[in-house]
Amino acid sequence: xKKISITFFLLLSLLAAAxxxxxxxxxxxxxxxxxPEHLEKTASYARILGYNPDSNTMTVxxxxxxxxxxxxxxALRPGDSIFTGGHEVLIQTIEVNxxxxxxxxxxxxxxxSLYLTEDFRGYSMRTFxxxxxxxxxxDVIKCPIQDSLLFLDYIDEESGNxxxxxxxxxxxxxxxxxxxxxxxxxxxxxxxxxxxYVTFDGEGNLATIHRFYVPWQ
Length: 217
Fold this sequence. Notes:
Elements: H1 2-19, E1 26-27, E2 43-52, E3 57-65, E4 67-68, H2 70-74, E5 81-84, E6 87-90, E7 94-96, E8 102-104, E9 114-119, E10 122-126, E11 135-144, E12 150-155, E13 162-170, H3 171-180, E14 196-200, E15 206-211
Parallel strand pairs: 1-5, 12-15
Antiparallel strand pairs: 2-3, 2-14, 3-11, 4-10, 5-6, 7-8, 8-9, 9-10, 12-13, 14-15
């Protein structure tokens, strides 16, 4: 009788384990390739925050879009979570529209309603309402201005439209404008609207600033 009872409870434990739901998953954005400690011969999305004429330095915020692994996104189920924008969001509902966009917790709360769109990187997290990416700040750095620095502007300053080839500005032209206007307003659209990428030379100096058209500008 004792052996039968032990066998029964063992079987009951195995059945309970088999029938219990799988543990919920929490997915996070893919690792960022840019290392702020070693910027030699690299490029990064950025926000230009300002210019200090006394030190002749530009304040640059290095940023990157939140991108998630395709297979991890497609495996998501209600009960799982996504860590995004500095906090964890519990998935209650998932929808996939005709364009392949994953809509998590559809609603009006930008903290809980998430939008993942597929592009060449994987699935990028989008902000609520204006279709901009969710951005991660990598670092805020002070960059000495080299005379060889170029600002390549792919936005028409008058119309705001995209240009096929950029207008080329020197470092002196750019810093002169930054002393007259705020970085968020300079050249009409500004340089802090998630519409810039920068490159660094072989010694890690700021080499070029590129401003490109974005639909949310």
